[in-house]
Amino acid sequence: MWILGVNAPPAGWHDTAACLIDGDGRIVAFCEEERLSRRRHSLYRKPVGAARLCLERAGISPAEIDVVALGWDDEQLYPGRFADDAEFLAYAVGLDFGERLPQVVRVGHHQAHAASSFYASPFRKAGVLVVDGHGENESSSIWTYEEGRAPRLERSWQRTASLGYAYDAASTWLGFSFLNAGKTMGLAAYGRARGVRTETLVDIDGDDFSLAVEPLAERTGRATAEEIKEQYDQTVARWRERYARIAGADGPRAAEDRLADDPGAVLVAYTAQRIVEEAVTHLASQTRKAAGVEELCMSGGVALNCSTNGTLPGPLYVPPVPHDAGVALGAAWTVSPPRSRTAPLSPYLGSDIGAETVTAADTEDLWRSPLDIDELAGLLLDGRVGALAQGRAEVGPRALCHRSIIAVPDTASVNTRVNTVKNREQWRPFAGVTRPGYGARLWEQQEHLSRYMLGAARATELGRQVAPGVVHVDGTTRPQVLHGDEAPAVGAALDALAAEGAPPVLLNTSFNDRGEPVVDSARDALAAFRSMDLDFLVLGDTLYRKRSSSKGGAR
After folding, report:
1. How far apart (Å, rounded) are the C-alpha atoms in residues 121 and 379?
2. Which uninterrupted H or E stretch holds 276?
3. What is the rounded distance in angstroms from the CA atom of residue 486 to the CA atom of residue 402?
């Protein structure tokens, strides 16, 4: 049995993705369309490239797919839009299934999010909290999941009581897209570091909470996408008005690259961050209470908020794909949950780098040599900044050392250099990666969040001393801990640094230029290497250098 899960238009109109599992719930491949189309967030694009990649990995044709599972109830949102499933599949997926159409299963958005988190976790029973902009009829929901039992919805909150809407409003007030909420989170840290006072915009009342911007009247269970969009616009506009009153302006007074110097911008970002932190702390407690266990899973776009995640007590699990791309996996797993789970989900489920497809003609302008880990460690210790692309691509928005830019973070100035390399604002932070034993000395411990770089952790004195380049202004970092040979080149480089007596920690950020998705293929990696001011590239088992640069010495 083959099940293809998708996040696909018209309901899933951003972060489209496809995931293929077998009848035992085993993942064959999972890919976000943006990695292949090279269009960030793949707005309004069907996940046809991602679906084809999944089928190629399995060695099957579209005609062999038994079920297509969608992480939305598009029939509620777009009533009458499609005459039948054949028309829907042609529009949303774009594969030629032949004469035998697969069954189409529509899974509610929040249930798909919840399934993607619980079944990816190591827990046998857990409370699952989903918080995002909105599903079909809710903005936050609490579930109980237990191995071998049907999931139970405990409670939900209406769409316009949305923490995601409140955060979207702050992001757009700051001049960002709602898809750039990570920038808002990074800017909010300046408010925390400066001890900025914020208004209390969340009221906790017993088991419930309410927001300063009251929700609108809504049609429960029948609202269409058009109605939801209208209510979204109204609610976000009201939140923006509130932020404008708080800041005394309709928008920032500084350019985007200087927002950290704008007190109003910092105040708005930190205000939104505090709304999320206060409400999610309460919701997490209520989720544990409803499930009757301490094990907690989180999903939905708000679960990408590392600063909030880092404030919550464990045991806490957030999957590498908590955002909308993750419902492709969750919808598939709702149809056929995994029968065997021995460890948390591996994120390395996408395209193989395919370095063997690179010819000598493709790289005649570059120095090329077999990868030698001692040489790589030497480049890093010399202050070089490089990139690597090895093995299968990570799924999710965090680069986890298969498609990463790396550097030794022993000075704060490396932060400036790498931000310049990536053509992004200098106030943006970076993450660190190390081995488990050394990570225990560098920052507060996180049992699961540091697998996928999804929780902020306060750096220790040693962390601030040896890795200032990955410590943000508020004293936190967003760590990744590498186990075993998950990422061979980076793991070996960390071990080589330790053997040299150097701190085994590296700066790790996504391998992409401004406005682009993370690189996927070997050709993507070579193109990005040439266009960015990088000193070296590890591509598969080969090390590349630019002929125009010196082969030795620090930059």
Report:
1. 37
2. helix 263-291
3. 9
Beta-ladder partners of 4: 20, 68
Q: Which of 86, 58, 73, 51 has its CA nearest to residue 1?
A: 58
The DSSP call for residue 124 is S
How many of the other CB atoms lie within 10 Å of CB of 178? 19
Q: Which residues, 6+ apart, have CB-to-CB distance to 54 below 8 Å?
A: 4, 18, 19, 20, 28, 29, 30, 31
Query: Which residues are the active-site residues?
Result: 14
Please report how many Cα atoms fall inside a 13 Å half-sphere around the Cα of residue 243, on the Cβ side.
32
> How far apart (Å, rounded) are the C-alpha atoms in residues 319 and 328?
13
The pTM for the full model equals: 0.96
pLDDT at 87 over 60: yes
Report the pLDDT value the prediction gives residue 497, as an integer from 0 to 100.
98
Beta strand pairing call for 103-106 and 67-70: parallel
Residues sharing a CB contact under 8 Å with residue 539, sequence separation 6 or more, in sequence order: 353, 355, 358, 388, 389, 390, 522, 525, 526
Give the pLDDT of residue 493. Answer: 98
Residue 553: the pLDDT is: 41
